[in-house]
Amino acid sequence: MAEAQTIPGGSNTSGSIAVAAESTTATRMSAPPSFDVADFPVPHGREEEWRFTPLDRLKGLHDGSAQASGGIKIDVSAPDGVTVEAVGRDDERVGRAGKPVDRVAAQAFSSFEKASVISVPKDAVLTDPVRVSLHGEGGVSYGHTVFDVGAFAEVVIVIDHTGDAVRSANVEFVLGDGAKVTVVSVQDWDDTAVHCSQHNALVGRDATFKSVVVTFGGDVVRLNPRVTYAGPGGEAELYGLYFTDAGQHQEHRLLVDHDTPNCRSNVAYKGALQGEDAHAVWIGDVLIQADAVGTDTYELNRNLVLTDGSRVDSVPNLEIETGEIVGAGHASATGRFEDEQLFYLMARGISEQEARRLVVRGFFAELVQQVGLPDVEERLLAKIEAELEASVS
């Protein structure tokens, strides 16, 4: 596999299969963040943030022509003590974690009827997860959800997307000081679905935020996880797993904005691709602002291409405005099965087909283990197995 790494003061690029590049303008966008859709021009595909996205397959989410028609069923299962409210756009808890950064996210903010605010009280240590299930039944829908987690609370949140839908939504995670939050977002849509979503996390002082994003289904899925810090000592871990099939476009665009001293972040996304015109895009932006002394950050993206006809664009960006940091780096690697790995397994009597399965399972194993919920882990492993069956059949 080709690989690129960066440490402060150094630069290099990689890749004949992947596009791995660096930028001194990691947060370059066509318009500044805003809640008003009118502040964003209609994208044409030449903009930096849209150049990889097939706009003609977004079903009008990007130009305002997608009119809400319902068609999504939402169920929330929460332990005792957790409250679920439907609030208006003017509620003070809505928008605290960050503004929309593109026209689709702004359109979602302007179009939802009621936002859902799911609150975990301070000091609560929940032994059961909060589960949010969204099942598409056709049609266009917009949404906004806020997870408001009190100081020193601990919670696991599972957001599960299934069915068929054209869906655009903003999701906020607001962590009080010392809180510990794990979020598992599963995109297991039908093959015809379109899903765009911006995830904003505001991490409080000494709080810990872990995100695990898993993407399997959908015709087009475009996610924007973003992290900022509300106080020193915050930690963010962003993990991702995606399996891109023929014709699918799966795009993950991350930003970790280190604007506060003595915070840490770690990013690790892995993907596998198979089939004609399977296209995966990973953009990893890390910005270390001048005031963010003591920052420690690293980001990694690895991709495994299983068949001909697939394409990966992997773009890690690291921008550093202060030299007083603990460490910073990134790596991007894309390649096919390594002959040595297959030879090692086959030399021990394992068939080539089973050897390939073992390699892919091992490739994803450490990310699946980050979920921490046996039922979800078993489901993901079964889904990976089903994808592998398709690749070798």
TrEMBL record:
Signal peptide: none annotated. GO terms for biological process: iron-sulfur cluster assembly. It holds the Pfam family SUFBD_core. Residues 1-41 are annotated as: Disordered. Residues 8-28 have a biased composition (Polar residues). Residues 136-363 form the SUF system FeS cluster assembly SufBD core domain. InterPro entries: Fe-S_cluster_assembly_SufBD, SUF_FeS_clus_asmbl_SufBD_core, SUF_FeS_clus_asmbl_SufBD_sf, SUF_FeS_clus_asmbl_SufD. Belongs to the iron-sulfur cluster assembly SufBD family. NCBIfam families: sufD (TIGR01981). PANTHER family: PROTEIN ABCI7, CHLOROPLASTIC. This is Fe-S cluster assembly protein SufD. The lineage of its organism: Bacteria, Bacillati, Actinomycetota, Actinomycetes, Kitasatosporales. The gene is sufD.
